[in-house]
């Protein structure tokens, strides 16, 4: 007996949260974390959310926008939240929010970056693969 493919999912069903403690190896000459390190975390979380929604691997098609809002430093606990916000036939638009908890716990959790990326679901041959429709989150 085979199961039918999932035809719909909500944003909550595919949401992903990653957390990472930043180290000195992640920093630049100014003592802040390289923007590229934060970008990699964003891409990783967004890819996981897109793949979770699609049920197959998903590849980055474009970065629609990215904003760095505050610096990240070694020792900060960075948390990356990604969720699918919109879908096409084979594509998924993913929004990402990044926060940092300062290692010394002085002050509130800080918003440090936001991003919007587009992913395409792919089959084993690397060809675009249809994705489930997106339902609104429940009440």
Please name the defining characteristics of this protein.
single chain, 139 residues, alpha+beta, Thiol Ester Dehydrase, Chain A, 5-stranded antiparallel sheet, two-stranded parallel sheet, 2 helices, 7 strands, elongated
**Parts with pLDDT < 50 across at least 5 consecutive residues:** none
| General shape | elongated
Query: CA-to-CA gap between the ends?
Result: 34 Å
Can you name the CATH architecture? Roll
How many structurally independent domains? 1
CATH homology group = Hotdog Thioesterase
Determine the fraction of residues in helical runs and give it as a percent range: 10-25%
Roughly what fraction of the amino acids lie in strands?
35-45%
What is the count of helical runs? 2
Major sheet: 5 strands, antiparallel
Cα Rg:
17 Å
Task: Calculate the mean pLDDT score and round it.
Answer: 93
Number of strands: 7
Structural class: alpha+beta
- As laid out across the biggest beta sheet, the strand order is 2-4-5-6-3
CATH first level: which class? Alpha Beta
